[in-house]
Specification:
This protein has about 425 residues and is α+β, with helices and mostly antiparallel strands. The chain is elongated and about 205 Å long.
């Protein structure tokens, strides 16, 4: 038979109460502890990222841009008059010489004007020749008259001397001697005036001839201009090279100044490279450069920096220092690299994906023998095409992840698998 034990039941209730109280106390403590546990570091596949070590030494600063090869000597040939395109003799891509005819134009009014200018020029030549004959005849007439006056003056002088001697010897009246002297003086004055008139006539003749010669020169220039314009109806290349563009069609009416064709010399090319405007501030004329034509690399130097910005880039011309590589031709796509400066004895590493010049960036540095990486703040300095200066935040020999790690922005530590 069962025996009642009231003290056992009471002890059991006490144990349950103590256990419940302990559980109530332990649960909040356990919750706080769990909340303070750090999230486990995510795993990054080593094969999906690339690394670089911090180097010390000389860093070559360069800027790079895409561009094209363009001829150094490019000539656009414009229309000199209003004309109609009659015939296209050569097409784009043809090799040309200076006298190669590319187009034939026609202008009836120009032909008429050229003929009028020729006749006007010949008429001016005839007028000049006629004027010279007339002036020569007039000058000879005046010179003959002056000679007559001089002859009369010489005779009067002789007569005055004879009359003076006769009067002195009493063989002739003094009045006759005085009359002869007065006549000689009058003829002396007339002789002086005749010589002066002869001189003035000579100067007037020269002025008339000069005026007619100026008119003749004017007519000659006009005739030469019309001849040149008439000859320009046969559009010639003007240089050895390649006909790169024919911008008109047969039957088209063109006005003066309209570009008809473009001729370029493919033997002398340069590279026009588009450098991002943020990187172009340190470029100077004469800096060393290299151009990759994808069929060879050629050294060169900066010859021109455009004053403007086109679509966020500054066009920079690079001239070649040596022979052009095989296959170089106008409009060929190239890649140009310009050497800005060489910076000695600095810390640098490869450019991270999100690293910009003179900025602070968070990079993952390898720790624990390369099995993990922690985020560190790195101050970057001057940059090049593939490298960038380390101002602070890393030491020589540190290994850093250069890949895009934006997917792990919420983590300061990752594990490498």
């Amino acid at each position: 038979m069962d025996i009642a034990r009231p003290d056992f039941a009471r002890k059991r209730k006490i144990r349950l109460a103590i256990g419940g109280a302990a559980a109530l106390i332990a649960l909040p403590t356990l919750a706080i502890g769990i909340s303070r546990l750090k999230t486990a570091a995510p795993v990054v596949e080593r094969s999906n990222v690339w690394f670089d070590s911090v180097h010390r030494g000389e860093m070559l600063r360069e800027v790079r841009g895409l561009g094209t090869l363009v001829p150094v000597d490019i000539r656009w040939i414009p229309a000199q008059t209003s004309a109609r395109v009659n015939k296209i003799i050569l097409q784009s891509g043809a090799m040309v010489k200076p006298d190669s005819v590319i187009l034939e134009l026609s202008d009836q009014q120009l032909q008429h004007d050229a003929l009028d200018a020729e006749y006007a020029y010949k008429a001016a030549e005839a007028d000049l020749a006629n004027l010279k004959v007339q002036l020569a005849s007039n000058w000879m007439t005046q010179k003959s008259a002056a000679a007559d006056v001089e002859s009369q003056y010489q005779q009067a002088m002789l007569q005055a001397e004879v009359d003076k001697k006769l009067a002195a010897e009493g063989l002739q009246a003094d009045m006759i001697a005085k009359k002869s002297a007065v006549a000689a003086e009058q003829l002396a004055i007339k002789e002086g005036l005749a010589q002066e008139q002869l001189k003035i006539a000579d100067e007037a003749a020269k002025a008339q001839v000069a005026a007619q010669e100026a008119h003749l020169e004017q007519q000659r220039v006009l005739f030469e201009l019309k001849k040149t314009q008439l000859d320009a109806l046969h559009v010639r290349a003007g240089l050895n090279g390649v006909l790169s563009t024919v911008s008109v069609e047969v039957g088209q009416q063109v006005t003066p100044g309209t570009n008809l064709v473009r001729v370029a010399d493919p033997r002398h090319l340069k590279a026009t490279v588009q450098i991002p405007e943020t990187q172009a501030k340190d470029i100077q004329i004469g800096q060393r450069a290299s151009v990759d034509t994808h069929n060879g690399t050629i050294a060169g130097h900066v010859t021109r920096i455009d004053a403007g910005v086109v679509n966020g880039a500054v066009p920079v011309d690079v001239g070649f220092d040596g022979p052009q590589p095989p296959g170089a031709r106008p409009d060929l796509s190239v890649e140009g690299t310009i050497e800005i400066e060489r910076i000695p004895n600095i810390l640098y590493l490869g450019r991270p994906v999100q690293g910009q010049e003179n900025s602070a960036v968070g990079l993952f540095k390898l720790v624990d023998g390369g099995s993990a990486a922690v985020r560190v703040t790195v101050q970057l300095g001057r940059s090049s095409v593939n490298t960038i200066e380390i101002v602070r935040g890393l030491q020589f020999g540190d290994q850093v992840i250069l890949s895009d790690m934006s997917a792990w922005d919420a983590h300061d530590r990752v594990r490498l698998n």
